């Protein structure tokens, strides 16, 4: 184990390199597949579109027949049939002929362009047998060609992609109602602390409600893990050990909150030792969240995150979620949290302690005149949760720095950014 606190970058690399991703594939119904990581490549077994089709409500024509058409000199066409979407055309277009056609309908043989109703004279009413065209059309105008979107045989989705709305649309298009995905990593969450009471319990002197468990569970759910909430337990080594033992064979990761500093009742190191987990490192040069402890029991990583709620949040963003991305099989260029650059828009410069710690300040990033600005939230103490509610990012400030107003700083975005 390390004898000195680790730099954040080193600590993150140690976590990521200690893990390998799950390869177990399950099949889930398409409508429940969002948030899963795709486990197999998806090949296009047909062209998309499957047939040449109209992009407009109007008339299918041969573009060569439209040359010279204008408002002053319309060209007349004989309407030979009507083709609604979903129907197959019965006739082939010959010179001077048009077919009334709706958006999405199959183009008749012979046609190579579609004119909109708006480019014809008095053609909105149905049943007209003569169409007068007011403008010339180019070859392929208002036509979607077979395979122009996706070619048969091409790989449309690759393993490791996170399934969202767009991927669901593609899977639906190819008739994949059962999706091969990696099983979601199961992450047990256990909050330790004799002061903790359940959310539904009335408040008692000296006690606080357990807010960490559900917060961490939600972060895990959003990142594609399956949270497994254990009952929060007092700072009792045996009780905590047993609580974990009950589930140890069914989990991929363990997150404990609290009990990792140097207090008389900070018993998490003993609990991990009881479970024969090997400590990889303890303490990092960050604030909040410095007493973070990382251990491994065989292949199962144990994340001993700090009990202070804001520290719990930061430890989760910096360690738990990148680890989850790796375990879940997600192929992203960088498993670390996505960083952006934002201009410091506070009234005063940020003055930091000279201690060589990387600070993660709760902050709000917003767009103004195309530039990402950031202001710090009121209340940066590790125990505060109020300031998290209004924050959408964490400003990263490396040790011993003064950040001036207008300076560009790295920010870890975790929420939506709005325009101001
Ligand atoms: N002598 C020292 N004391 C402390 C140090 C230190 O270096 N020397 N480090 C401080 C720092 S920094 C942090 S961060 C905290 C970390 O404490 P623990 O991780 O051991 O967490 P606890 O002691 O269990 O609790 C801390 C704080 O958080 C509240 N808490 C705990 N669990 C929950 C929960 N599930 N939901 C809401 N709030 C929770 C708890 O009541 C405490 O107030 O240690 C400092 N001390
Ligand atoms: O690491 Mo603690 O969260 O700095 O207060
Ligand atoms: Mg403590």
TrEMBL record:
CDD domains: MoeA. The keyword Magnesium applies. Pathway: Cofactor biosynthesis; molybdopterin biosynthesis. Gene3D superfamilies: MoaB/Mog-like domain, MoeA, C-terminal, domain IV, Molybdopterin biosynthesis moea protein, domain 2, Molybdopterin biosynthesis moea protein, domain 3. PANTHER family: GEPHYRIN, MOLYBDOPTERIN BIOSYNTHESIS PROTEIN. Catalyzes the insertion of molybdate into adenylated molybdopterin with the concomitant release of AMP. Belongs to the MoeA family. This is Molybdopterin molybdenumtransferase. It comes from Paenibacillus psychroresistens.
């Amino acid at each position: 184990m390390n004898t000195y606190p680790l730099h954040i970058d080193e600590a993150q690399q140690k976590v990521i390199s200690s893990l390998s991703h799950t390869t177990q594939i399950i099949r889930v119904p398409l409508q429940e597949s969002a948030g899963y990581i795709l486990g197999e490549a998806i090949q296009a077994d047909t062209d998309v579109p499957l047939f040449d089709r109209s992009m407009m409500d109007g008339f299918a024509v041969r573009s060569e027949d439209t040359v010279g058409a204008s408002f002053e000199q319309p060209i007349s066409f004989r309407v030979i049939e009507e083709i609604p979407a979903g129907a197959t055309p019965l006739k082939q277009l010959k010179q001077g002929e048009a077919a009334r056609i709706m958006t999405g309908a199959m183009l008749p043989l012979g046609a190579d362009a579609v004119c909109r109703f708006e480019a014809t004279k008095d053609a909105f009413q149905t049943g007209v047998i003569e169409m007068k065209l007011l403008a010339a059309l180019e070859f392929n105008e208002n036509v979607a060609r077979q395979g122009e979107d996706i070619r048969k045989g091409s790989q449309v989705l690759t393993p490791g992609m996170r399934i969202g709305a767009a991927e669901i649309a593609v899977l639906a298009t190819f008739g994949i109602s059962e999706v091969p995905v990696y099983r979601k990593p199961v992450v047990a969450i256990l909050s330790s602390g004799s002061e903790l009471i359940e959310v539904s319990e009335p408040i008692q002197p000296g006690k606080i409600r357990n807010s960490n468990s559900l917060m961490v569970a939600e972060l895990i759910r959003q990142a594609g893990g399956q949270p497994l909430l254990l009952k929060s337990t007092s700072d009792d080594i045996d009780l905590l050990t047993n609580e974990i033992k009950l589930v140890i064979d069914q989990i991929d990761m363990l997150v404990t909150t609290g009990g990792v500093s140097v207090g008389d009742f900070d018993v998490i190191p003993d609990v991990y030792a009881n479970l024969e987990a090997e400590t990889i490192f303890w303490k990092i040069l960050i604030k909040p969240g410095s007493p973070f402890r990382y251990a491994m029991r065989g292949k199962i990583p144990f994340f001993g995150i700090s009990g202070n709620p804001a520290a719990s949040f930061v430890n989760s963003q910096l360690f738990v979620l990148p680890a989850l991305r790796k375990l879940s099989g997600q192929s992203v260029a960088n498993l670390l949290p996505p960083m952006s650059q934002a201009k410091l828009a506070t009234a005063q410069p940020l003055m930091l302690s000279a201690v060589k710690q990387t600070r993660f300040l709760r902050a709000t990033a917003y767009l103004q005149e195309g530039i990402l600005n950031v202001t710090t939230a009121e209340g940066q103490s590790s125990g505060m949760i109020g300031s998290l509610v209004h924050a959408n990012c964490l400003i990263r400030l490396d040790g011993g720095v003064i950040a001036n107003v207008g300076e560009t700083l790295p920010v870890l975005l975790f929420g939506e950014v709005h325009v101001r």
